[in-house]
Structures are given as C-alpha cells and as structure tokens.
Amino acid sequence: MFKVLVTDGISDTGLKSLFDHPNFIVERQPTLKFEELKNIIGDYEALIVRSQTKVSAELLQYADKLKVIARAGVGVDNIDVNAATGKGIIVINAPGANTIAATEHTLAMMLSMARMIPQAHKKTVGGEWDRNSFKGVELYKKTLGVIGMGKIGTEVAKRAKSFGMNILGYDPYLTEERAEKLGMKKASLDLIARESDFITIHTPLTNDTKGLVNDEYLSKTKKGVRFINVARGGIIDEKALVRAIQAGHVAGAALDVFEKEPVADPALLDNPNIIVTPHLGASTVEAQEKVAQEVSEEIIEILETQSIRNAVNMPQMSGETQQKMQPYLLLGEHVGQLVVQLLKHAPSKIEINYYGDLIEEDTELLTRTMIKGILSYHLSDSVNLINALHLLKEQGVSYNVQKNASNKGFANYMELSITKGSETAKIGATVLNGYGARIVKINDYRIDVRPESHLLLVKHQDVPGMIGKVGSLLGDYQINIGTMQVGRTTVGGEAIMVLTLDKQLTPEVIRALTLINGLNEAQSLELDNVDSFYPGRLELEKIK
Ligand SMILES: NC(=O)c1ccc[n+]([C@@H]2O[C@H](COP(=O)([O-])OP(=O)(O)OC[C@H]3O[C@@H](n4cnc5c(N)ncnc54)[C@H](O)[C@@H]3O)[C@@H](O)[C@H]2O)c1
Ligand SMILES: O=C(O)[C@H](O)COP(=O)(O)O
Fold it and tell me: What is the distance in A from the centroid of ligand 2 to the CA of 236?
C-alpha cells in the first residue's frame, strides 16, 4: 500500500484515480502547520501540494519514505527541488493543465483594470452611484507587450488579438516565424517598454527574471502604461512599481502574485490604481480538476510502474525517444555495475564516451543510468536516477562525457572508463540490432558477452588447456556454464576468459580457481535485476 498526503486545497474529483485505487491510501490535511507536517511526513510515499505548502529542505529531512512530491500546478518555487533531488525524491508538476485558467485570469485582470471594475464595484455596493470617476480605456488598437511567450503568454497573445490589439512578444525562444504565425511581432524588452500600453508578464521567477521590471525598466516605458502580473511575484519590483504609479508614469497594475504571499503591503493594497487578486490564476473548477487528475495518474504510474512523464528533476524525453533509448538505458546500468566491480574501488574520475548512432541522441539519461550503476555498488538503494549526479558531486567524483565522431566498428557504442589513482577499468558495450545488449570490451580485451546475472572473469596465461581446466573445476562444484568467451591482446601473453554462469560463485570456488596453474586472477562479477531488466520500461526500481 502507498500512502499519499494531500495538503492545500486540491480537487476531490481530480484525485478520483487515487481514491479509487486499491493500492493507495489518500489522506487530506489541508491546514497543517510546519511542525504538524514535520511530525507526519515520514509516513507517506507521496505528497501532493499547491503553492501554499512550503516543502523545505528541513521538512524533507523527516520524509524518510517519500518518493514523489507532486505539484498540482506549474510553479515549483515552494519546493526545495535541490533538497528533493539530493534525497532521490521525484518532483513532478502538471505543466499546461492550468494554462487556460491563468490565461483567462490575465485577460480578466487586464479588462478589469482598463475599466476599473473592482473600484467601481466597491463604490456601487457601498451605496454610491458614481458615473464620473470610472472612465476607462479601451484595448482596441492598443499595444500589448507579452514578456514570456510560453504556454500562457502565447494563449494570452492569441486572445488579445481578438480584441484588436497589436501584440509584441519577448522570449528567448520566440522565433520570427512563430511570431508571424501568431500574427504578432517578436520584440526586444526595450521595444516592449517603448511601445506598449499594456505589459503582461508570463515568465517563471528565475535569477534572470527577478526584478526584471525595476526602476530602470520602468523609466523606459511609455507614460500611461499598465502592467499585469499573473506569473510570479518578484518579477516586478513592487516598490519600483508603486513609485512609478505615484509619479503618474504608470497608470495602473493588476496583480495576482506578490513578492510575499499573502500580500499585506498597504502601498499595494490601498492604491486606487492597483487591483489585486489572491493568486487566483489557476483557480477554476476545470483547472483544479485537471492538475489534480494529472498528478494523481502520474503518482500511480511512478509508484506502480516506475515510469515518469513530467519530472522537474529528471531529463525529459519524448515517448518515442524513450522507446528508442530503452535498450541502452538498461545496458548502461549494467555497464556501470560491471566497471566498478572491475576497478574494485570507488572511482575518483569517470569518463563516458559515446559513438555511432548514440552521438545523435539525447544521452543525459543514459549517462545517469551508468553513474547510478557505479554508485549503487557502494551506496546501494540510496542511489537512483534522480540523485545520481548529485551524489557523485557530493562524493567529489568528477565526470566527463564525450560524443565522438570516430568509428568504433559498431553502429552504436558506449565506453565507460573509471579511475582511482593509477588504476583504471573500462567497459565497452553496444546494442546489436536483432541480438540485443552486448559487452564488447573489458579493459583492452575485445569480447562478446550478453549481460547475465552471474559472470566470472578470469585473467590467465595464453597457453593451451586453460579453458578445459576452468571448465572442469566449475563442473566439480556443480556450476553450470552458460557461455564462455576468450580475449587476448597478444598471442602467448595475458588473456581473459568471461563466463556466464547459472549461479553465483562462492569465495571457495574463487580460491580453488586461483590455484590453477597459469591462472592469474579469478573475479566473480554480479549484475542486478538482469531478468526484470530487459523486458521494457524505464528502470527505476530503486525509487519503489
Ligand atoms: N497566477 C497563477 O495562478 C499561475 C497559474 C499558472 C502559471 N503561473 C505562472 O505563470 C508563468 C508562466 O507559466 P507557463 O505555463 O506559460 O510557463 P512556460 O514554461 O510555458 O513559459 C515560460 C516562458 O518564459 C520564458 N522565459 C524564461 N525566462 C525569460 C526571460 N528572462 N525573458 C523572457 N521570457 C523568459 C521561457 O522561455 C518560456 O517560454 C510561470 O511563472 C507559472 O508559474 C501562474
Ligand atoms: O504555478 C502555478 O500553477 C500557479 O501559480 C497556481 O498556483 P496554485 O495551485 O497555488 O493556485
């Protein structure tokens, strides 16, 4: 059974798949204080939050069983994603599920500000019939500057066009072609400042966007400009905004999000030219059902089948790429497990080289699976694909990844080399079309071995009779040999033998092997999860 804790106001309808699932127990605690949350968080495998619950590094110290933190929405700034990553906890969100709600709220705020609807409403319900104080402005033929042309910015631009507005958009990813298709103009921030009558913000809050609209930017804007922020507090410097409104330069602002929430600053709340809502951008019945439904379904997938779609702290892959990369991902972990056993030490340096078809692919996840394979030998279950790179850094291990154009004789080839002091171990592997995964290089020896649970690596003199001696000794101990491969670099020098076996070797057999004349070393190499490893899905069993 998996226990899911739901804090914040999350839609019951959206949580239906979790409520109905026989393997999940859902508990709602929408009004917990930090101390209370800290005391219970250790019982849960999954946590669902909106923007109100602060999932801090301190809280996560108590979250011993937690595997997934789900943000029923977009922004994850209330979650310490680094701390979650360090603990191997997946952070997921529901990008896109509240796009329409935030878009419509942006337009509602723009229209309300333009026609002073909240101010007029307040006076009217207060008993005054004031038809003189609320002469608004029209949107028609005005210029709207959209900063951040992602999902919400794009939808806002499309709808604003239908009001007859001219649209300018700024986004590092906005191309001339896309802007043209949308019937708008790609602009610089300065052009938006100079020409816009309304400026709406739709970026995340990042180091780059924090205080993007500050005194300096405001000084470049057109007199009478109006701002809308339904993105994140802090992108507009609130003090600078108030100064510009008081100076009569900025005509108004419509704010849904604030530097500090709940907002209490009278300079914002008592200003007749500023209208506010309490972070309501995503608060529609439809959006709330959708965000809760998306994260509920994903929690079930992650905990039951270890498949991840929208993780914030994992490299993303399209379904098609994931399917294409699947055999390499499975092999990559085994390559990592093998190389660390070969070195017999925790490495201080890792080198990963990709060749052939792999240089065209997104290999970030593959790199992580190799690193997970290496680290799990010493760190065991505490390593997963989420925290592998973080743990590597923590251990002070450097790693370098290269994609090479040179031909290694295979359509695809990955080589992992790890070093400790003067010792290095190397494994080369490929996926052969129609034949599956193969280990094709151990240190400098060429071989051809299918990854199996139990392997025996023998280093011996390249002299007649060695294969027979090893085979008959294993027979004496009732150990069945699956396959046997030999490799050598020079005739008569040192050679290697790699055998796949039906069961694990005991130290006694290893000792007996080393007594064979001409045999320099025998090492048992064990691979985890070989049987469950090749059937198909992205392997994340350590997250379970
Ligand atoms: N008020 C609410 O309730 C509410 C609801 C939903 C989303 N949001 C917020 O709205 C914002 C936009 O959400 P989205 O779903 O459209 O995200 P998105 O990721 O689809 O789009 C964000 C865009 O911002 C752009 N961007 C990043 N840095 C930029 C910069 N320095 N200058 C210009 N553009 C930059 C990115 O390239 C991207 O295209 C986010 O901050 C999100 O958290 C708020
Ligand atoms: O990032 C988001 O999804 C929005 O800010 C909505 O936040 P909320 O779920 O707390 O309303």
Answer: 18
